[in-house]
Amino acid sequence: MVHQPSYEPSDLAIQTLGPREFLSPLPMSTKQGDGIGSFTPDELRVLYEHRFLEGEPLNSLAFELAGARQKLFFDPQKVKAAIVTCGGLCPGLNNVIRTIVFELLYNYGAKEVLGIRFGYRGLNPEVAHPPISLTCDTVDAIHHQGGTILGTSRGHQDVKLTVNFLESEGINMLFCIGGDGTQRGAHAMAEEIKKRGLPIAIVNVPKTIDNDIKFCHRTFGFYTAVAEAEQVIDRAHVEAKSVFNGVGLVKLMGREAGFIAAAATVASGEANFCIVPEVPVDLKVFLNKLKKRLAAREHAVVVLAEGTGQHWLEGSDQCDASGNRKLGDSGSFLRQQINEFFAKEDMPVSVKYFDPSYYIRSLAATAVDSLLCERFARAAVHAAMAGKTDMFIGLWHDQLVHVPLELSTGMTKRLSPEGELWISVQALTGQEKW
Ligand SMILES: Nc1ncnc2c1ncn2[C@@H]1O[C@H](COP(=O)(O)OP(=O)(O)O)[C@@H](O)[C@H]1O
Ligand SMILES: O=P(O)(O)OC[C@H]1O[C@](O)(COP(=O)(O)O)[C@@H](O)[C@@H]1O
C-alpha cells in the first residue's frame, strides 16, 4: 500500500465525476501501443463489458480506475475529514472507518479526522450529537467489533443545514458509508456544495447487506452475512430431517433483492426451494411442489427472502424514516399457509421456522470482507485527496472504480433469475436489466 502522493499547490480542480466521464472513450484510442506505463492513473479505465459477441461492435464504455494519484487536490496539512455511517448495519463498517482513518493520518498526514454520530442526524446542527475525534489510537481495535462505533440512523435531514455544518466546521472531505439512500443524500449534498462553489469532496463507500448497489458486484459484509445465513439453513435442514415430513423454513434479509437468500441457498446445498422477490411465486403452485417434494423425500428446506411475497399480505403503505417500504412478515405468513394447506390435504407436516433477522448482519466481518473493506476505504481516501467528488467506489470485474453518484439513483440492483448476474449495456439507456 505504499505510495508517494505529492502535493504541490497545483493546477487540479475539484472534480465532479459526471456521466460524461463514465462514458468517456478509452485512452487506448489516443495513445496506441504506448503500453500501460505511459498513462496517468486518471486515464486508466475498466471496461464496462467483459464479454463480447462476435460481429457486435466493441463498445468503449468504461469506468475510471480507482487508486492513488500522483497529484493531490488537497494539501494534507489542511485536510479536516469526516466519516459518517448511515442506514442498516453491515459487517465491516468499523473496518472501513479504521482504514480511512489510518490512510488519512498515517499515509497522507492529514490534519484531523472527525466521526459524525448517528448517520446524517449528526450533520444537522439542530440535533445535539457533536462529532467525535478519530485518531489512530481510538480506531485501533474497532475492526474486531460488529456494528459501527459512530452509530447510524435513518431519516431525512435538511441538505442546506448539513452543508452549513460542513462549512462551519471547516470539513473539506466527507466519507459517507451507506446504501442507496445514503448515496442519494450524499449526491444532494454534493450538488448543494457545487452550487455554493465550496472545495469539499463527498466520497461514498457503498454499504448494504442486501448487496443491491449498482455498479458494485459485491459489497463488503455480504459474504459474512451469507456465511451466517448458510449455517441457519444447515440447522433448518437438521431439524427438518429429524421428523416425519419436517419443513425447515428460513426467512432471510433482502428487502427488494434476493442475493443473500440465493447465495446462502447455493452455499448450503441443503435448501430445496429458494423464494426471492425477483421471481413472482404463485402460492398454490409452490405448495403443490412442496407436497410432491415431501411425498418423495419426507423433509424439505425452504428459504425465503423477506421482501418476497409482499403481495400475499395485506397491503401496507407504511415506510420507515428513510422512506423505505416497511415489510410485512412474509415468513410467518408462509408458515401459516403451509400448515393450513397440509391440514386440508390431511397430510401431517412439522414446520420449524427460523428467522435469524439482525443476527446475520450485526457481527464483525470475516477475513474476505475485511480485505474488501480495506480496499474500498483506501480507494475512497485516494479519490478524495485527488479532489474527486460526488462519486462512490464501485467494484467492477474485481477492479475498484470511480462511479458518479448520479448513476446510482433510481432502481437498485437485482438478482438475475436467469443465472449469473448479467448486466446489460441498456442499463445506461434507462431500460434496466439488473
Ligand atoms: N433523496 C434523498 N435525499 C437526501 N437524503 C436521503 C435521500 N434518500 C435517503 N436519504 C438519507 O440517507 C440516509 C440513509 O438511507 P437509508 O435508506 O436509511 O439507508 P441506506 O443508505 O442503507 O439505503 C437516511 O438518513 C436517509 O434519510
Ligand atoms: O430494521 P432496519 O434496521 O430498518 O433494517 C431492516 C432492513 O435493512 C436491511 O438489512 C438493508 O438495509 P440497508 O439498505 O440499510 O443496508 C434489509 O435487508 C432489511 O429489510
TrEMBL record:
Cofactor: Mg(2+)
Protein name stated in the entry: Pyrophosphate--fructose 6-phosphate 1-phosphotransferase
Species this chain originates from: Adhaeretor mobilis
PANTHER family (alphabetical): ATP-DEPENDENT 6-PHOSPHOFRUCTOKINASE 1
Alphabetical list of Pfam families matching this protein: PFK
MF annotations from Gene Ontology: 6-phosphofructokinase activity; ATP binding; diphosphate-fructose-6-phosphate 1-phosphotransferase activity; metal ion binding
Superkingdom in the source lineage: Bacteria
Gene that this sequence comes from: pfp
GO CC entries: cytoplasm
Annotated family: Belongs to the phosphofructokinase type A (PFKA) family.
Gene3D superfamilies: 3.40.50.450
Record InterPro entries: ATP_PFK (IPR022953), PFKA (IPR050929), Phosphofructokinase_dom (IPR000023), PKF_sf (IPR035966), PyroP-dep_PFK_TP0108 (IPR012004)
Known function: Catalyzes the phosphorylation of D-fructose 6-phosphate, the first committing step of glycolysis. Uses inorganic phosphate (PPi) as phosphoryl donor instead of ATP like common ATP-dependent phosphofructokinases (ATP-PFKs), which renders the reaction reversible, and can thus function both in glycolysis and gluconeogenesis. Consistently, PPi-PFK can replace the enzymes of both the forward (ATP-PFK) and reverse (fructose-bisphosphatase (FBPase)) reactions.
